[in-house]
Amino acid sequence: MSEPLVFNPKVRRVIQSAVGADSHMCWTCRSCLNECPVNLATSRLQPLKFVRLANLGLLDEMLDLPQIWYCLTCNRCSQVCPMQVKPAAIIGYARSRWVASGRVSQKTLDDYRMLLYRFQRVRWHAAKACMKKDATPDLADSLWREWMEKRVDKSLPAIRIGSAAFSVQPSRSASRNADGFSCFTCKECSNACPAFGGSEIFDPLAIIRMANLGMGESLLTSPSIWLCLECQRCTDTCSQRVRGHELVRHLRKLAIETGAVDKGFLTRWYLMGKGLYPKLLNEIDRLFGFQ
Ligand code: SF4
Ligand code: SF4
Ligand code: SF4
Questions:
Q1: Which of 220, 274, 227 is nearest to 120 (CA)?
Q2: Which of 160, 193, 223, 227 could form a disulfide with 202 if both were Cys (CB 3.0 to 4.6 A apart)?
Q3: Which structural domain, as residue segments, surrounds residue 90?
């Protein structure tokens, strides 16, 4: 029988103070588990586990978890938490302690950033593949490797104002300040976006600018709009109150309504995610030496 875990109130206070949230308020509703895109696709990242360990002050046990590096920092777990426990901030704190402890080299951290960047490239290719009606969502290792390396098409055409036959802005009545016209291109949304991959792959600012310029057709047929993780960080960070996440959501709805993607797309895209995320976690395991 293994030894029981011993509650460490001092470490719990340190963690709670660092993340600015009370882990003991968690009432284990599991909403964070059901919201995490990585957990939904793989069952391998449980934000609640970090909350429970933080609550017991078990920092060392937390630092033994590879899951620290599985997190995409999308913050969806924190947003959905009814008790404002901030699981994402707890994972972020564990990550910072890991780095501070010298367990990981700068090269590994650089490679990790590049891996996440390439992952968005893979997702772009995957979304494009899913746009074909006869696509099979099976993701072979060879295809994963190919998509990691392959640059995306130059999908964005030269900017021309007013080429769209319909508006791609959500109506103001449906969503106050959801349009992008007040954007002054400060790039805060791009900097905050966990799915950012450059303007050719995915960049909320590029999408807002294209919507402002009436480039609806290009947007609705672009794989990029399916890369958004719906985390709302672009909206939360925007000082001009542009609601980027609602714009992307609206574009997706229009893409389905106008037939830019067929009705089977969402199922293929969902199934593709089930192949993509485990491969990403395997790459992370290899990079950090977890396997
Ligand atoms: S969503 Fe919040 S309250 Fe619910 S299990 Fe997760 S941390 Fe606990
Ligand atoms: S921040 Fe996102 S990826 Fe990380 S645990 Fe929370 S929901 Fe999952
Ligand atoms: S909601 Fe905004 S910040 Fe989050 S992934 Fe989508 S575009 Fe990026």
A1: 227
A2: 227
A3: 9-103
Residue whose CB lies within 8 A of the most ligand 1 atoms, among 19, 24, 26, for a mutation test: 26
- CATH code of 68's domain: 1.10.1060.10
Q: What angle do CA 27, 65, 76 make, to 5 degrees?
A: 50
- pLDDT at residue 174 is higher than 80: no
Using one digit for the tens of pLDDT, what is the confidence trace for 44-89?
999 999 999 999 999 999 999 999 999 999 999 999 999 999 999 9
Distance 281 CA to ligand 3 centre (A): 21
Q: Is 112 exposed, middle or buried (0-12, 13-18, 19+ CB in 10 A)?
A: middle
Q: Which pTM value belongs to this model?
A: 0.89
Distance in Å, CA 252 to ligand 3 centroid: 13
| Three-state DSSP class for residue 217 | helix
Residue 247 and residue 124 in one domain:
yes
Q: 258-287 pLDDT, tens per residue?
A: 999 999 999 999 999 999 999 999 999 999
Closest residue by Cα to atom 1, ligand 1, is 81
**C-beta of 87 in contact with ligand 1 (< 6 A):** yes
Q: For residue 198, how far is its CA from the centre of ligand 2 (angstroms)?
A: 22
